[in-house]
Amino acid sequence: MSSDEDKLSQTFSALANTTRRAILARLAEGEATVNELAEPFNMSLPAISKHIKVLERAGLITQGQKAQFRPCTIEVTPLIEISNWTEQYRHIWESRFDQMDDYINQLQGE
Amino acid sequence: MSSDEDKLSQTFSALANTTRRAILARLAEGEATVNELAEPFNMSLPAISKHIKVLERAGLITQGQKAQFRPCTIEVTPLIEISNWTEQYRHIWESRFDQMDDYINQLQGE
């Protein structure tokens, strides 16, 4: 098992949670502090901090060092890695769609 | 939390394992029985069967009903869902690359 594969497992694992994916969606609109993130989710600060730590360990976000604010920023590298991993299977779903098209055309021609 | 989101969590969770991703990569080349899958991984049948069950529950593979063979087939729907989820972030990494390009051009111009 290469360390690259381990990292991919860590990213997939971090994304296997609706709250963490919602945090990422919020950060896609711009950086936010932990307080700002906690508010819409109606979660305690310790609960949201735990999710933020998981995202940070997976490299999906970074947290600034600015005194009490420490805004969180979304990081794109693990998302690109997930995208690249998924792309290797695109030819399979495209060929299945082609087969489906052929089948439908065949039905319509009959 | 919608059931769609739950399903996405289940897919991400199933993919957070190198052996399960390797099984998918093998099935991308064509269907295979549990015995055929177990061989290259040098794993016991019960161990590989456990991974197959996780992939099956996430809808990433299906297992045929043909007597003792029961070949496994890769299923594309959850992979398309992961791809669609990731695509929503593409504009972020593309805009960051654009910013990087601008910065490099600026440095080269100086």
Write structural notes for this entry.
The structure is a homodimer of 110-residue chains. The first copy, chain A, is mainly alpha-helical and 110 residues long. Chain A has six helices and two strands; from the N terminus they run H-H-H-H-E-E-H-H. Chain A has helices spanning 3-15, 18-27, 34-41, 45-57, 77-87, 90-109, and strands spanning 61-63, 72-74. In chain A, strand 1 (61-63) and strand 2 form a beta hairpin. The longest helix of chain A has 20 residues, at 90-109. The first copy, chain A, is elongated and about 70 Å long. The relative contact order of chain A is 0.13. The mean pLDDT of chain A is 90. Chains A and B meet through helix 1, helix 2, helix 5 and helix 6 of A and helix 1, helix 2, helix 5 and helix 6 of B.
Describe how the helices and strands are arranged:
The structure is a homodimer of 110-residue chains.
Chain A: H1 3-15, H2 18-27, H3 34-41, H4 45-57, E1 61-63, E2 72-74, H5 77-87, H6 90-109
Antiparallel strand pairs in A: 1-2
Helix pairs in contact in A: 1-5, 3-4
Mean pLDDT of chain A: 90
Number of helices of chain A: 6
Give the percentage of residues in beta strands of chain A: 5-15%
* Helical coverage of chain A, percent range: 55-70%
Largest interface: A-B, 31 and 31 residues
Spatial separation of the terminal alpha carbons of chain A:
52 Å
- Overall geometry of chain A comes to elongated
Structural class of chain A: mainly alpha
- Write down the secondary-structure element order of chain A: HHHHEEHH
* Extended strand count of chain A: 2
- Unreliable residue stretches of chain A: none
Quaternary assembly: homodimer
Strand line-up in the sheet with most strands of chain A: 1-2
User: How many whole angstroms does the radius of gyration of chain A measure?
Assistant: 20 Å
Sheet with the most strands of chain A? 2 strands, antiparallel
